[in-house]
Amino acid sequence: MHLHYRKSSQPLDVVAIDHFPSLLPRESSTRFANDSTPYLLKLDQVDTYCVWVNAKKIFDLKAAEAEDLLSRSGN
Q1: Domain for residue 6, yes or no?
Q2: In this predicted model, what pLDDT tens digit does every residue of 35-58 receive, in sequence order?
Q3: What does R_g of the chain's alpha carbons equal in angstroms?
Q4: How far apart are CA 75 and CA 62, in angstroms?
Q5: How far is CA 49 from the centre of its chain?
Q6: Rounded CA separation 68/21 (Å)
Q7: What SS3 state is found at 74?
Q8: How does DSSP assign 3-60, residue by residue?
Q9: Using CA atoms, how far apart are residues 75 and 72, in angstroms rounded to an integer?
Q10: Do 53 and 47 touch, CB atoms closer than 8 A?
Q11: How far apart are CA 23 and CA 46, in angstroms?
Q12: Which 8-state DSSP code applies to residue 73?
């Protein structure tokens, strides 16, 4: 999916992997799109909208954990 973020002249490419188990990929993809669209429409509030704030906290935590593991393994 190719999005144009209002505050940037650069487009945002979104790659999403649907984890809904389904033998009906079209319906599964439609549901995933319908479920995720409200959050994608809030990307202009990435610093204040709770879903994006929480996602960043989790990302930062996991990135720090990965960095710590790499530094302890000598990489």
Answers
A1: no
A2: 999 999 999 999 999 999 999 999
A3: 16
A4: 17
A5: 13
A6: 34
A7: coil
A8: EE-TT-SSEEE---------S-HHHHHHHHHHHHHHHHTTGGGTTTSHHHHHHHHHHH
A9: 8
A10: yes
A11: 34
A12: H
14-31 residue pLDDT tens:
666 666 555 567 887 888
Parallel, antiparallel, or unpaired: how do β-strands 2-4 and 11-13 relate? Answer: antiparallel
27, two tokens: 């319906």
The domain of 63 spans 44-74
Count of domains in the chain? 1
Residue 52 lies in a domain: yes
In a domain, 22, yes or no: no
Written as six digits, the tokens of 34 are 């319908």
Distance CA 18, CA 9 (A): 28
